[in-house]
Amino acid sequence: MSAISSPAKATPISNPLLIGDGLPPFGEIEATHVVPGIEQLLKELSQALARLEETLADKLQSTTPITWEDTVTPLTAITERLSWSWGIVGHLMGVKNSAELRSAYERVQPQLVQFSNQVGQSQTVYQALKQLRSGADWSHLASAQQRIVEAALRDAELSGVGLSGEPKEKFNQIQQSLAELSTQFSNHVLDATKAFSLMLTQPEEIAGLPPSLLSLTAQSARDAGEPNATAEAGPWRITLDMPSYVPFLRHSQRRDLREQLYRASITRASSGDLDNTPLIEKILDLRQQQAVLLGFENYAELSLARKMAPSVAAVEALMEELRSASYDAAVSELEEIKAFAQAQAASEASEETEIKQWDLPFWTERMRETQFDLNDEALRPYFPLPRVLEGLFDLAERLFGVSISAADGQAPVWHADVRYFQVADAGGGRAIAHFYLDPYSRPAEKRGGAWMDECIVRARDADSVRLPVAYLVCNQSPPVDGKPSLMTFREVETLFHEFGHGLQHMLTQVDYAGAAGINNVEWDAVELPSQFMENWCYDRDTLFGIARHYETGEPLPEADYQKLLAARHFMTGSAILRQVNFGSLDMALHAQYQPGGSESIWAIRDRIAKTTAVMEPLPEDATLCSFGHIFSGGYAAGYYSYFWAEVLSADAFSAFEEAGLDDEEKVAAIGRRFRETVLALGGSRHPMIVFKAFRGREPSTQALLRHRGLVTAA
Q1: What is the CATH number of domain 273-372+572-639?
Q2: Among 239, 350, 538, 695, whose Cα sits 20 to 30 Å from the Cα of 680?
Q3: Helical (H) or strand (E) element with 454
Q4: What is the pLDDT of residues 96-129, one digit of tens each?
């Protein structure tokens, strides 16, 4: 199926970014295509928008009723055409970053913002949508269509459609500046992460490091120009990339090196040419100005206008409920670790008894090993990526009735490690979706973290259905020394999480792109399917379907499974409190910070930490300078969304627990209901309506607290 009635393209296409539909031809796209391609596209789309406005203006002046086909269909054609091309560029910025691509991206970004403002602030389109909403045909539109129109009207209002003159000009200037600052922030973090490394050469420097990390860091040294580096003899290159950084802090016996690495991480992008501090202050200032221009008291209120949470007070109430439930536990956990470390130090006649931030991961891991006889590194051989994928796909078939198979070679890819898969209805059914999987860390060109993004969104025309395609991106340990990617249990959970996002995108049954998949789903509900999927990592049938030794094929020993279950709630108070700290800090910065006021961003950070952290941040801690979620991602005044959605996801999973996880028939029936509601309905209905359609009632926080080990089951 071709893109929905896209605007006519001029002349034969020589630029792959102007194709406009189908799978992106990654093998043909170069950075040199970005500027001419996007500039040509914006010219064509501006003309299409002008034609649409002219048509709508004539209809508004006449007595002719405004219809869906008059407004939303052509508007969708314009926005989808832009999303296809610009989405490819944005995707490559995340997974194939380069100086040439950055330069091109930054050159055309202002034109993109200008065009987006032009669309969002079109009075003609806005008035036509208002007339459509109040017209006689409104009641005949499907709920998905009505939600799309309502969202378009709201987004127009939040895009400044009601502004004129100097306020409008100022608003548009702010939009431009925020887009540029967000890109700069992200680039600074990537560059600062790449700029730091420790090259270790002596055996005593690697004391305590597991074989998997030695192999990874020797490979990193080879990539950095040490062709003879080996896991056995070094040198070993330690970086701030998570697969290197996290296990080093957990296992290195060299306290001085742990401190060096920790300090490098918390001061990333906080000095010199890469200093994000002035960018943060400018971003917060501009967001506040933007909110005031639109009639809000602060940016937090503006952000919540698009979300499920009704108010800043409601978010703060949830944060406080979780803070009060976790704080005492976190304090006790820290005291336990201190006592454990001191006992160990005493037995080893060591003088190092004061726990510092760089000691916590190390001693936490030692205490976890002692209490549960559980070693994350020892479990890696049981989680080879190919087997984990097989088990994950089996779970998807068991729950949702879909069959997933490799389709490598059927789609162009941006890196040799990228896989391509087909999703079909089980039992030899028709294909219903596809997805790319880019699993491994590539710190030189790929930003950190893990995410799902849209490649192609489901839509229907008169003849056929356009099938959705997703990008699933992780940053897990790559294959080294001839072994497959051997995953930590946390990396397994991360893969399940992103796959949950992918399922909502791919299993949607909504035929209108504006509400298909994750589109038009309130941001604080969009984590429901992803967090829901994480729960299955602890389910017996699921885990034993995944965990098999990569060499022998032996299943994970039962004793290790029981240890995983026992350790699930280890340090849970600290884990919750850490997220509460992030969510509360994000909300305070966007609701309370006043540029030039009496309280700096760091003072707010310290104030929030007094009640949401059990160790004071170091004076030089500048973690805000790498907090990409809120300064270069979509979580500004929305980081709380992880908890808001976890209330929903935990309660959703409890439906399976109540039925009995070992009752295959009931689990399958509830799984199909989850598919038919949460996964199928996407943004066609309000998330609370969707949740109640699945669960039969509104959600409760009790399941979340129980899953996190803070309350016991009734």
Answers
A1: 1.10.1370.10
A2: 538
A3: strand 451-456
A4: 999 999 999 999 999 999 999 999 999 999 999 9
